[in-house]
Each structure stands twice: as structure tokens, then as C-alpha cells.
Amino acid sequence: MTGFEPWGKHKTNPSGELALEFGGIVLPTEYRSSERTLLAAVRDRTPRALVMLGLAESRKKLCIEMVAMNMDHADARDNARERRESRPILRGAPLAIPTRLPAHRLLAAVKSARVPVALSYHAGTFCCNHIFYIALARLDLPAGFVHVPRLRMVPWAVQRRGVKAMMEAL
What we know:
By secondary structure, the chain is α/β, with parallel strands linked by helices. The chain contains five helices and eight strands; from the N terminus they run E-H-E-H-E-E-E-E-H-E-H-E-H. Helix 2 (31-45) crosses helix 4 and helix 3 (103-112) packs across helix 5.
């Protein structure tokens, strides 16, 4: 499991805290470094599946992402101060790649845990989508991405219960 470090105006990032809680790693919120860190961690740990988490500041529930897009584009700068605009992640690669996690099974598990959850068909075009696309394009294992809301939208204990339900369903 991966999550991200805090970025921008966010002093905390529940995705990184959740990843650590479940024995995962925290990725830098940087296009280049997150890629290197993820690929090295998978090489070192050889997981059977990969669940990546990221903060979606406007969402009010856990969102299981269905598709990664081959596009970096954001007004925000990453933590290395890099800003990307209308740039393919991998030139010549498919425009979109679907998740390789059993999304509907995960959705049912989180709902059963009484945690607000939905399927989402747009992971954004910032670092979350970037790492989601890299994982699907470069790794040969079941992988997917889940956006989590800010803690004031869904409290820590509820988010933790939802992630635990997903992990048990896997």
C-alpha cells in the first residue's frame, strides 16, 4: 500500500498515514520521485497486489478509481515545485488504462463496513493519477488507486475501517 506525503496547503495527508498504518510506504508528492520510490519499493517488497491511496480534497467519501489517464496537467506545483501542463505521462502509451483491482468487490466490502464509498472515473491529472498510470503501465501485478477525503469530511477511524475492509476483500 502507498499513500502520499502532505502537499500544498495540507499539513497532513490521511493517505500517507493510512499507508503507514497498514505497513505501506509514503510516496513524495512529486512526479519524478514518486515514480522512482514506487518502482523501487515494488522491486524490494514484491507484493502480490498494490493499493495506492491519495488525498482528494473535495471528495466526501472514499473513491475507488476505475481508470488512469495518460496525462499530467495541474495548476498546482508538486513538492519539488514542478508544474506539468497537458503532458503525456508516457509518450506512445494508451490514453487510459483500467484498474486491475476487483473494484466492485472492494466497493461492496467498504459499503458493508458502513463507510461512504463510490466508484470514480477520473483520478485527476496530478500526482495521484500520475502514479496510478505508472503502476498500471510498468508493473505486472494487480494495482489500483483509491482517493480518500480530508479528515474533516470523513474521520480517521471511518477511513481506516474502509481501507481495512478493502484489504480484507483483496
